[in-house]
Amino acid sequence: MWRRVASLSPLISHSKPSIHNQAASTFKIWESFTSQSETVTPSKAAPFITFVLGGPGSGKGTQCAKIVEAFGFTHVSAGDLLRREIASNSAYGAVILSTIREGKIVPSQVTVQLILKEMEASDNCKFLIDGFPRSEENRKAFEEVIGAEPDVVLFFDCPEQEMVKRVLNRNQGRVDDNIETIKKRLEVFDELNWPIVNYYTQRGKLHRINAVGTVDEIFEKVRPIFAALSK
Ligand SMILES: Nc1ncnc2c1ncn2[C@@H]1O[C@H](COP(=O)(O)OP(=O)(O)O)[C@@H](O)[C@H]1O
Ligand SMILES: Nc1ccn([C@H]2C[C@H](O)[C@@H](COP(=O)(O)OP(=O)(O)O)O2)c(=O)n1
Ligand SMILES: [Mg+2]
């Protein structure tokens, strides 16, 4: 495992080394990495982070499962973490539920803390952060709290009509998988997603993937991105 991660390390970049070092102390994995190889410098041993963008129903979760299987990432789904929070009747649960039901975005502070906790609890160092960031506010909050930028950003680009069709057929009993909420989610997505896409395009990190096709066809476009990194 370490060798694979070490081989990914030349592609790992971090824009704010000082904040990163500060946040690094919060990662158990950081300590284990730095003690595992004498050739590894701290900046190379940081977590390898992939953000997974795309509208509702674009296939993020489905492709994440394939990436986990093929490349050993840990899947951190922002939506799943928020739904877990609702189910646990936590202090934030009611607010999260009404926000999701309205098709809006939960305050970044809440989501980033949940993501951070999940990353801290993992022994893995390769993370797929699915459904995040969904706004510039999300993106900035992550950078401030975690102190690192993603190494790779995937964007599953899917026509609205196809996304609506998939969400309505999803059948997972989700409160937001109904036509009224989907319309709102698509409006929010259209309003907030493009600045994020533009930001990571400018930074040379974005991989735009046409999300129309079978699950396997789409994964064949995803695979080379990670295969190249682990060479
Ligand atoms: N390429 C695809 N073609 C058709 N249906 C798909 C495809 N990928 C995923 N699905 C289905 O569409 C629905 C939404 O997929 P999901 O992975 O949950 O998307 P997201 O996480 O982006 O909302 C699910 O029911 C899933 O099985
Ligand atoms: N970064 C995030 C991710 C999800 N949410 C909320 C709002 C989203 O509509 C719901 C569901 O997110 P999820 O990623 O599970 O949704 P899809 O898989 O794209 O259908 O959670 C959020 O507020 N902030
Ligand atoms: Mg999903």
UniProtKB/TrEMBL annotation:
Its main location: cytoplasm. Keywords: ATP-binding, Cytoplasm, Kinase, Nucleotide-binding, Nucleus, Pyrimidine biosynthesis, Transferase. The keyword Ribosomal protein does not apply. Binds 1 Mg(2+) ion per monomer. It is an enzyme of class 2 (transferase). It holds the Pfam family ADK. CMP binds at N138. Gene3D superfamilies: P-loop containing nucleotide triphosphate hydrolases. Catalyzes the phosphorylation of pyrimidine nucleoside monophosphates at the expense of ATP. Plays an important role in de novo pyrimidine nucleotide biosynthesis. Has preference for UMP and CMP as phosphate acceptors. NCBIfam families: UMP_CMP_kin_fam. Belongs to the adenylate kinase family. UMP-CMP kinase subfamily. This is UMP-CMP kinase. It comes from Rosa chinensis (China rose).
